[in-house]
Specification:
CATH topology of the largest domain: Maltoporin, Chain A
Largest sheet: 22 strands, antiparallel, barrel
Number of helices: 8
CATH architecture of the largest domain: Beta Barrel
Distance between the termini: 44 Å
Number of domains: 2
């Protein structure tokens, strides 16, 4: 036990995570291989510790892992995490990070951080409707906690937390440039540089991505149903999804002693909206977004005797913009228009829209945050962490133009009295949402108590006060038992909450969904039992068992006597399951990894399967150095058992087996590296679920994923 303590202490004292070999015994060297730099994690408690000992169910994915698997986007990486399935939204094919059966279309129940700073948007509570993916060249490591995290991170750390840590100077070997070409007219390029300037460590990264996107065919859509009803032929189905986009990502890090500064830009342009914002194909629309971030961090582990002090100041600016008209229903659509100028009943008449049913909503947000924390180790066997912070977010501009609804100048229904030209409804009585802000003050306290030789108890709670919905307190308790030198057992309880989005609270003038300013946050209580077993220094096994209770779920409930639905806290979902994972260094040139996850989630109000999330997931990967500097990585995932929600009478979503392969040649002519990847090797017809409507699913045959595709890349280091 003393050896383990010494190893952890040495890891924390050395920034690189390395220790001079001569200072260690043979046993300590073996333990260092187990608890090495790649398996240190900080998001479980806010302090670094070996992932196997952390009071959470966590995974760490390094840049080396990402390169080995041939991933080009964040979502391909996250799909390898046990119990996490990346489903697909109709809107832009945005990712739905489905953890342990917690599924919703906008997916605000998972908190995503970049360098510890939230990138959640106020409008929908997601990462931005114009997400457009995230490339991986700038990523040093990804830390994922499955389960509650609100006691540490507050709102939206609900089903899980994903922290993306970008590369610093130490992660970049001088300068690297690279490029990739592949299927769907995809072109990528990047440049990375790590060095020193004026006494600062510097890391600078630029990434470019341009693609026409896969062209999976939608056989029928929402307009197809209107065509059948009103005798028109406006639907563009069968037709391809609209997934083209151009991305520019740039990141800068400056660090010196206890200070670290990050700046970033995620520019998205010419972005298609997938299967259509109204689940009707729309090849016309192009979205755009600029997401700017800066943060300044102070971290001094020796601030004073027994004191480690940290502080962070950050700013985040994000937008959802329309470059070309958002056509909810295509040109020639004939639709029933009610007195409010929108689709509804009772209709004043059927109206044919020669340019389509067009609405262009845009939102712009700013977020400013400050937090500070201190760790005090002056008490025997205790490490006490406390902190306070303040977050301010504002949806400071919302604008729209549309050819439906009420003309704010005349008060008449636009489709019934106009020539279908667009009417600007910004800052008028016909606006779809008003500007609004949210203030959040929080304080937290956490104690890690080593009360016996092989036992530790982590307890903590966080208090949050919100300007728009009140207070919430979220506790956590974790008991960690080092059962044997090679086995750790954890028993954990945590509470979490998800803040209502501004769309759920404040949306107005919408024919389908209306906001409710009286909403309360969603809540979740989770119990977990976890085992981390390392019988040999080259073999790790993990087993996790969980049970959760999700309450006050925010859903849009149909209004009596009206075609609209209003957001309400209603319904309870429960879930349980298990996750098993294994990692084996079978030989010096062969590493095998895999995991299996099972979950069963129930909508208690309807006594029915919660729907859409896979009941079983299996993932396998082999990393094989076939010959010196030749690396071959096959991987496969099985997605099994996705049911439907109550009232969705379609057959279950089809299972699929997805196989990828990557072959990489390193140190080619010393400075060069090349790789070739195949995605969906066997060209399976894989689909993600489309959502059910009131009467039938707008897209009955679900959302097609990409067929077989190929990518080749080259890197040059100097």
């Amino acid at each position: 036990m003393a050896i383990v303590i010494r190893i952890v202490a040495l890891l924390l004292l050395w920034p690189s995570g390395q220790v001079i070999a001569e200072e260690l015994s043979e046993d300590e060297k073996a333990l260092l291989k187990i608890y090495g730099n790649q398996e240190m994690i900080s998001i479980a408690t806010g302090t670094k510790q070996p992932v196997g000992k952390a009071p959470a169910v966590a995974s760490v994915i390094t840049a080396e892992d990402i390169k080995a698997m041939g991933a080009t986007d964040l979502d391909e990486v996250l799909e390898t995490v046990p119990g996490l399935h990346v489903a697909t939204s109709t809107t832009g094919y945005n990712p739905i990070y489905t953890i342990r059966g917690v599924y919703s279309n906008n997916n605000p129940q998972v908190l995503v951080l970049i360098n510890g700073v939230s990138i959640s948007n106020l409008f929908l509570g997601d990462r931005n409707r114009v997400w457009g993916g995230m490339p991986v060249q700038a990523i040093s490591r990804i830390e994922v906690v499955r389960g509650p995290g609100s006691a540490v991170y507050g709102a939206d750390a609900f089903a899980g937390v994903i922290n993306i840590i970008t590369k610093s100077k130490q992660d970049i070997n001088g300068t690297e440039v690279g490029g990739r070409v592949g299927s769907f007219d995809t072109y990528d390029g990047w440049g990375l540089h790590g060095g020193e300037w004026a006494g600062f460590d510097v890391a600078a990264i630029v990434e470019y991505h341009d693609t026409q996107g896969q062209k999976g065919i939608i056989n029928a859509d929402a307009q197809t149903a209107f065509d059948h009803q009103f005798g028109t032929h406006a639907s563009l189905a069968p037709g391809p999804v609209n997934l083209q986009r151009q991305n520019v990502d740039a990141r800068l890090e400056l660090s010196r002693e206890h200070w670290r500064f990050h700046a970033g830009l995620q520019n998205r342009g010419n972005k298609g909206n997938g299967a259509g914002i109204a689940q009707a194909l729309d090849p016309v629309n192009r979205y755009a977004s600029d997401r700017w971030n800066v943060d300044l961090n102070y971290d001094n582990p020796n601030f004073a005797e027994d004191w480690n002090v940290k502080a962070q100041l950050s700013y985040f600016d994000t937008s959802q913009e329309v470059e070309r008209d958002l056509t909810l229903f295509p040109a020639g659509a004939r639709l029933p228009i009610a007195a409010n100028g929108q689709i509804g009943s009772p209709a004043l008449g059927l109206v044919t829209f020669p340019q389509g049913y067009i609405g262009n909503p845009e939102v712009f947000e700013r977020h400013a945050r400050f937090n500070s924390s201190a760790i005090y180790t002056g008490f025997a066997d205790h490490s006490v962490r406390s902190g306070v912070g303040f977050n301010y977010g504002t949806l400071y501009k919302a604008q729209a133009s549309q050819n439906f609804g009420l003309d704010p100048t005349t008060g008449y229904a636009i489709p019934l009295v106009s020539d279908f030209s667009l009417v600007n409804t910004t800052d008028t009585s016909a606006a779809f949402i008003r500007t609004a802000d949210r203030k959040n003050f929080f304080a937290f306290l956490q104690d890690e108590w080593k009360f016996a030789n092989d036992w530790s108890l982590t307890t903590g709670a966080r208090y949050d006060n919100y300007s728009d919905f009140g207070n919430t307190v979220n506790p956590r308790v974790a008991l960690v038992w080092e059962t044997r030198y090679d086995l750790t057992t954890k028993l954990m309880y945590g509470s979490a909450f998800r803040a209502p989005s501004f769309a759920e609270m404040y949306i107005i003038n919408n024919p389908a969904q209306l906001g409710n300013p009286s909403l309360k946050p969603e809540t979740m209580d989770t119990i977990e039992l976890a085992f981390d077993y390392r019988p040999r220094d080259k073999l790790r096994l993990g087993l996790n068992i969980f049970n959760y209770w999700w309450k006050d779920i925010i859903r849009f409930v149909p209004d009596i006597g009206a075609p609209s639905s209003t957001a309400q806290n209603t319904g309870v979902q429960t879930g349980y399951g298990t996750e098993f994972e294994a990692e084996w260094q079978a030989a010096d040139t062969l590493k095998l990894l895999g995991n299996y996850a099972f979950q069963k989630s129930q909508d208690e109000a309807l006594n029915h399967d919660a729907g859409y999330a896979p009941h079983h997931q299996v993932y396998l990967r082999a990393q094989w150095e076939v010959m010196p500097n030749w690396h071959f990585t096959p991987q496969a995932k099985w997605i099994i058992g996705r049911g439907r929600t109550d009232g969705d009478n379609r057959p279950a979503v089809g299972d699929y087996t997805w196989v990828d392969m990557t072959l990489r040649r390193k140190q080619l002519a010393e400075h060069w590296e090349v790789a070739f990847s195949v995605r969906n090797l066997f060209d399976v017809n894989a689909r993600e679920p489309s959502l059910a409507g009131k009467n039938a699913a707008a897209i009955p045959n679900d959302l097609p994923l990409a067929g077989r595709s190929f990518f080749g890349e080259v890197r040059f280091n100097f």
